[in-house]
Structures are given as structure tokens and as C-alpha cells.
Specification:
By secondary structure, the chain is mainly α. It contains two helices and no strands. The protein is flat.
Length: 41
């Protein structure tokens, strides 16, 4: 269970980096994060 939390936080950090570098939009960030929440829980 704890590994999934760590993996989710890592994915969130990567998503934030992509968003800050304008590689993905805010809408894409939100959509991917929602999918990640489902995958890692």
C-alpha cells in the first residue's frame, strides 16, 4: 500500500514538472492526475 502512495507522489511530481515546462496543459494535468489516482489506489 505504501509503495502505491510513493509511486503516486512521484507521478504527481513529474506531472507538475511537465505542466510548469508547458509540455502539458492544465486540463491534461488534471485528466492524467485523475487517472493516476484511480490507478494507484
Amino acid at each position: 500500500m505504501q509503495q502505491k502512495s510513493i509511486d503516486y507522489l512521484l507521478s504527481l511530481s513529474l506531472l507538475k514538472q511537465l505542466r510548469s515546462q508547458h509540455v502539458i496543459t492544465e486540463e491534461e494535468f488534471i485528466a492524467i492526475d485523475e487517472l493516476n489516482k484511480k490507478s494507484f489506489k
